[in-house]
């Protein structure tokens, strides 16, 4: 009997990053022009490209077994699904995105309460309504079909609730942020029945394991170098290796070869230190997966 | 005191056609990159570019005095506005668009009733729900964030309600249309208070007059020719002129010059007939406005 | 009974110019993405977009009743079709294109005879072979799949036979032209049986009449002006009007209004002359068709 | 003997508008890819595409007989040339462009004097230096290789002198304008010797005549209508025609046909008035040239 | 004396993949705009970019020593060349492409024999003719200048022979495949004389060795991990390493470090197994060449 | 107290290569649309994107602490800055660029002296003037706003001084090079005061160390293989390793594993030799940094 797992991947701004992440994890996906079912080199998988907004509904209904979508849209849809894991990656930075409450930069509004009786435009209707209800602020919230920032500038509403990673687009429209409504990032979610099916659950867990391994590898590198044996102990203290370093003897008995896995961002600080200690022949190489 | 009329024009697929129509009508609009208020050569007008979906709400609320949007979105929003006129133009053909109920080409569904208990995806949520309620058919209707045709192909829903001018995209996805849900075309709508303001109403009526004149001119041309005086009467019978033809004498007393305004599509039939009658020196010239 | 005429229009470099020419002639053609049969506002026509190279074959076989293609490809295919008319228009200039024999600018070849025993690359295989046979020059002619000019530069052949309007691309590759192989321009061709069918022949003739009228109008304009009555006779001599000018009286009995149809290129010479004679209020307007 | 006039046209932002203007004036120019001498349908002309900044130098030196460039670059180069005429057209609006002195929107600078001792970046080095010298303000002016607005934002200078038509880009960078340095628009300039050559001067004057005629026609239209004879006098008073209207009799002796040439922008006001007076069958048609 | 090898690489759809493959193999090729001879960092090579269809002819004639092209075009040209090796890579998948016989999805044709007397369009004229001759089926085969699938849809032919990797484009046109005409993939081919020249043969063999090494490396990765010494034997059985694994001691005598080279696609199955066995600190790294 | 280093990176043709080089070196830079200060994952850095032409001025003035620009623009600006290092990388090749003196291919000019009294166009005004002054040749040098090669073709000047890496663009315009004016490549330059500040100098030196390490790694690879122990000594002689090779024992005592770091370009020669010696399981892997 051949089992199949139906997986939904997000269309749009995260699409390319997702296809790349799966490729690094071991699944090569080809999006054919005019073909709605992308090819993948795994006969146990069927892939659907869906809008992030609709994903949670399809997973909850069982149309899909598993899907990737944002925390924001899971809450917006009130979907009853299993959150398997968080996946921190994005199209711009590696920061989680946030939905913010923003108003015109030259408006008198300084806090949510100042907006009582005003009009709020947003694509995240349900979450926004709940946000104001919980605060006991009476506002009119209406659905915005895109270009939400511009609506404040054009005088079509008084405030917006919009998603941003860095705040750049918000500022570029001359708006100011007066509150955070919610933080969000990508989640791997599963249908409840699929999660209770042992074959499907094992498959989902393996996919998650390899996705996490690929994400981790994006931030790490391998580092190899030769160093005098007598500085090894001192060097060990400054090297934040994932595992214990691999130390090998060299033909010259006074020297050893050392190999470590470390965060790439630490390398630019570490190399000058290692050179000061006498390390030589330092090479850094890239990693595909770190598990 | 200087009066101002706030007018909303539709962003997106109709945007270029609308800017062009206004230019022909006498208003040159410049959409500046990064500037939300387009320039227009009329100090009495302020222009906002809005999504067609949101236009009726803004007009109803009085944020805008007047706007152009589809009949479909006026109904979807249940907006209480004045419908000033219909404007028949489009991005592809000159046919009005229609929202159709479509299912997979190889599905067994033949009529709306066959969809009882099924899932329907659409961007026109309210109208679609009312359509099924009026027929007494119980279905689940859910909102689709675009690429609606693909959802049937991918098995994410059983049927869709989607807009089409020619049916081409529907067919290209292998779908079949089983009912018309509504016909729609562009309307000029006004806020009720604005319509009751005499200055604003006059301004709106003038804009409408010139828009209609420019639309009419797109389908008409001027035709001038010389013909023997003795065939004039016979020729008059086959020439479907807007006004009575202008007939002028020529130096040769046996000939006259005739000028008419006719539908461009009639010209290709008319010219061979006129030549058979002896007409000569036929020229056709374009028109900007016909009022 | 409803008759239909199947017409083939050329894909590729002439496509846009052809669609525009038909629009001016009275037929609006819409090329839908993913739809092989373009829409046209005439129920008696069916349109196919074909490669110019293949058109004559389809017309000869009766798959199409009528088509537009180059004289070159009619000869290359040795097609037995009716040549209804020539249509002088192009994507760059209004000169007919020519197939030329070209060699490297620094090669010793000066005339076709110098190429005896050499390799000639061309897309126009049959015509080229006949050209050399008629001259009694023994060469190897082989088919070139595009980018033919580059083949001389890269040393893949000794000479090419390639089409050009202005010679610019030939020169830009450092080649020199040593002979003209043939002149070519667009022809309207008809299937022999279709031409003998009276309904189809009438339809083809009407289409041709209007295409020619639209082509003629591209080079002509209408010119209107006021002039003193006493210079009219003198002015008449310098005005190369298509028909005799239309002269109308004005309220000032010393002046008349004169209207002529002339070649646009003549206007820039004529206007200074007319001004010298005392003409005033000269306006020029565009024409759609001149028949 | 064949005379030739060498004319320089501006590359870059005005290029397309210029080619179009010449086409309307009667000269069809083809810019061939890889060919530095554009084709033109006039054997007496040779065309060079030049940067506006360099044009005046080439005309002054006699490398070109005549050229189109901005007043700004004529002054910047201190060129000794004949200014034949002004040509009011642009890529965005029809307003003349202006070079403005701009500073950061949140800086304390309010007037040129506040910039004493500061750094000014500009592409218009000479004019800017003279501007400050004439005011007796001591500043450091340095040349900016493009993206000048951004330099204030990035803190690379204190103020800029930059060209703008509508101020939109200046504002979009958060800058404020504190003075106008100069107004500029396009000029037709001639070399002094060429201007003294009678054949060349005549040719230049003819080109100028037709360019001006085409520019004027862009803003005007022809208007024809039928009206009751008894309102004609009243209607005449509101019709701002270029020439006196052409009035023709119609078969119905109570009606006349009236034709006028008027500014397009006036049409939208005039038509409602004429309809109120009883005019009918109003048509508007486009013009190519008005001289 | 300096020897040179002339190599032809395919233009068009495989061009980018080929340039990348050579870069991985050690040859950096720069395609300069307007330069027909690409730069390469090897003075012993001269590179020509050719159409795949023409490559075999040039290699057979000795214009090129060696070239890359498809098996299909070698057969179509009946070229007498040395096939050095197969290179399995493509622009979409890694499957070999195939030329298929396809007909309209709603046609009655089910097998090649049903097409007797019909018209077949193809770009692969010779191979297609031979295919039908060998089967003893009498058909008219004619050359198609591209867009071959559309010809069935438009009724211009009854069947086509066209190349496809995944069948997607065939299906998207509503066609069905009724036979395979031939499988094809890329070959490295050599001129017979070049192959008999010892210097050239050695050079060709080295290029082939490194191309194959780079292709193999695309599918493989390096995997390193730490594992308890006592599971090593068991782990060895599930690890499909290219070579025998490299096992190194760690400071903790109960653990070893293991490094293997395996197919990337096997990793996603292997890692969960290894983790179950107790492996830790698993990292995967990319490879450039595997020989 | 938190220190900050202001660094200027070149906009334009080197921008992408520079961003990539910094990423490899450990600094991830995000250029946000509409944001002039790119994000970087180092709180001690502030980044400005500047034109290469203006960089040296900003570094000299202390507006920036450190910047990357070409030797050419440092000389052109006569800037008094510290040249920290050379960085050999480019957008096309890895050769340093050179400014050359070029004339029309069919002109009589053969050497700089032949240009006495002639006009020279260039973007590098100062350096060019000094070049001719030092040779004692009297010429008119004027500033060229881009498209300099075309100016010779169009007859606007007699010679140009223009930058080129490979000479391709020069030749494509039909020009010939008659002298080298200067060689140039990218330099890391520092402000004198910044260089004397110990914190800034240390920071600059670290950045330089890692940039150099990333550049070096672009040309090197890691190579691992197994070989019979008895050929090790012979193999050592042909392997140009950066460091001494790392040799490890394998379970088969007759074989060893050898790992070296070598120039990638040497690999294609070395691998066939190693295979001849009996090496097996050769793999090559990429490097990020080599220090």
Task: Record keyword descriptors for this entry.
291 residues, 10 helices, Alpha-Beta Plaits, 3 domains, five-stranded mixed β-sheet, 33% helix, alpha/beta, D-Maltodextrin-Binding Protein, domain 2, homohexamer
Report on the structure:
Six copies of one chain form a homohexamer. Chain A has helices spanning 15-25, 52-61, 71-76, 125-135, 148-153, 168-172, 192-196, 198-218, 232-238, 264-277; strands at residues 5-10, 29-30, 39-40, 45-50, 66-70, 82-87, 97-104, 119-122, 140-143, 159-164, 175-184, 186-190, 220-228, 246-249, 255-263, 280-286, 289-290. Chain A is flat and about 80 Å long. In chain A, the strands form four sheets. Chain A has a five-stranded mixed beta sheet, sandwiched between helices. A five-stranded mixed beta sheet of chain A has the order 9-8-10-7-11. In chain A, strands 14-15-13-16 form a four-stranded antiparallel beta sheet. Chain A folds into three domains: 5-90 and 185-217, 3-Layer(aba) Sandwich (D-Maltodextrin-Binding Protein, domain 2), CATH 3.40.190.10; 98-183, 3-Layer(aba) Sandwich (D-Maltodextrin-Binding Protein, domain 2), CATH 3.40.190; 219-286, Alpha-Beta Plaits, CATH 3.30.70.120. The two termini of chain A are 31 Å apart. By secondary structure, chain A is an alpha/beta fold. In chain A, a hairpin with a 5-residue loop joins strand 14 and strand 15 (255-263). The longest helix of chain A has 21 residues, at 198-218. Chain A binds chain B through residues 11, 36-37, 48, 50-51, 53-54, 57-58, 63, 142, 144-147, 150, 153-156, and chain B through 11, 36-37, 48, 50-51, 53-54, 57-58, 63, 142, 144-147, 150, 153-156. Strand 17 (289-290) of chain B pairs antiparallel with strand 16 of chain D, so a sheet runs across the interface.
């Amino acid at each position: 009997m051949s089992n199949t797992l139906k997986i939904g991947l997000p269309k749009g701004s995260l699409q390319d990053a997702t296809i790349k992440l799966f490729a690094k994890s071991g699944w090569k996906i080809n999006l054919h022009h005019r073909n709605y079912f992308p090819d993948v080199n795994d006969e146990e998988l069927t892939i659907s490209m869906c809008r992030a907004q609709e994903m949670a509904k399809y997973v909850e209904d069982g149309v899909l077994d598993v899907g990737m979508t944002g925390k924001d849209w899971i809450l917006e849809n009130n979907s009853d699904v299993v959150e398997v894991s968080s996946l921190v990656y994005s199209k711009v930075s590696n920061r989680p995105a946030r939905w913010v409450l923003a108003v015109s930069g030259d408006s008198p509004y300084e806090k949510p309460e100042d907006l009582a009786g005003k009009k709020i435009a947003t694509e995240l209707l349900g979450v926004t309504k709940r946000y104001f209800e919980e605060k006991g602020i009476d506002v009119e919230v209406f659905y915005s079909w895109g270009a939400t920032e511009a609506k404040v500038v054009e005088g079509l509403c008084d405030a917006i609730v919009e998603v941003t990673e860095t705040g750049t687009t918000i500022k570029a429209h001359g708006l100011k942020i007066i509150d955070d409504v919610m933080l969000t990032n990508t989640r791997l979610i599963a249908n409840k029945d699929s999660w209770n099916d042992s074959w499907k659950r094992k498959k989902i867990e393996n996919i998650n394991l390899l996705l996490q391994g690929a994400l981790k590898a994006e931030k790490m590198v391998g580092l190899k170098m030769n160093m005098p044996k007598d500085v090894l102990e001192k060097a060990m203290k400054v090297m934040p290796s994932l595992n214990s370093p691999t130390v090998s003897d060299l033909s010259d008995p006074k020297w050893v070869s050392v190999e470590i896995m470390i965060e790439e961002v630490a390398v630019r600080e570490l190399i000058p230190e290692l050179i000061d200690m006498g390390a030589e022949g330092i090479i850094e190489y890239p990693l595909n997966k770190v598990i």
